[in-house]
Amino acid sequence: MEAFWWSTGVVALGEMGDKTQLLALLLAARFRRPWPIVGGITLATLANHAMAGLLGHWVARWLGADVLRWVVGLGFLAMALWMLVPDRIEADGAERRRGFGVFATTTVAFFIAEMGDKTQIATVALAARHPELAAVVMGTTFGLLLANVPVVFAGDRLLRRVSMPLLHRLAALLFALMGLLALLNVGGVASA
């Protein structure tokens, strides 16, 4: 259960102000159909994070415990620094996919937007650290949904009231803490 809650918290904070959160806002404004958007976000995230989690488990199995500890620790510290650089969304992918329905457009757009994103890389690192792959994938997916579903339903009213720089600093602090804990081997690194 620890892997689930760490994964949820890390990704929920890390997702604040992220380009996928902005994408959720754009899709909600464009289509005004929240449930297919939430379904598309869920499917895309589960698929993306399952692949990332499998990669993390593979890395954990093939690296020795000491090397893994350093890779995970330094990876989380790098994520902490990355959190301090806000994302900018690129052109709305939905405009180029006019033939798709709301669900399919959201699924494709979110899957592509998550490729190489902070939360995908965090999922790799979390899966390398925690042997409970399903808990990590479910936690990171739940964390992404916690950050994005309110945006789909409440939109810009919610984003105007939240201090993104503060949330980015809190997420950076959480990533730095996890990096230091991994480097100091507090809680152990999964050697699956």
What would a concise description of this structure say?
By secondary structure, this protein is mostly helical. It has helices at 2-15, 19-31, 34-62, 65-83, 93-96, 102-114, 118-129, 133-154, 156-161, 164-183.
| Secondary-structure element string | HHHHHHHHHH
Please compute the radius of gyration using only Cα atoms. 16 Å
Termini separation: 17 Å
| Nearest-integer average pLDDT | 79
Query: How many strand segments?
Result: 0
Unreliable spans are 89-98
Class per helix and strand makeup = mainly alpha
* Count of DSSP-assigned helices: 10
Largest sheet: none
* Shape, per Cα inertia axes: globular
Helix content: over 70%
The percentage of residues in β strands lies in under 5%
Plain-language structure description:
The protein has 192 residues and is mainly alpha-helical. It is 79% helix and 0% strand. The chain is built from 10 helices and no strands. It has helices at 2-15, 19-31, 34-62, 65-83, 93-96, 102-114, 118-129, 133-154, 156-161, 164-183. Helix 1 (2-15) runs parallel beside helix 8 (133-154), helix 2 (19-31) packs across helix 8 and helix 4 (65-83) runs antiparallel to helix 7. The model is unreliable at 89-98 (pLDDT under 50).
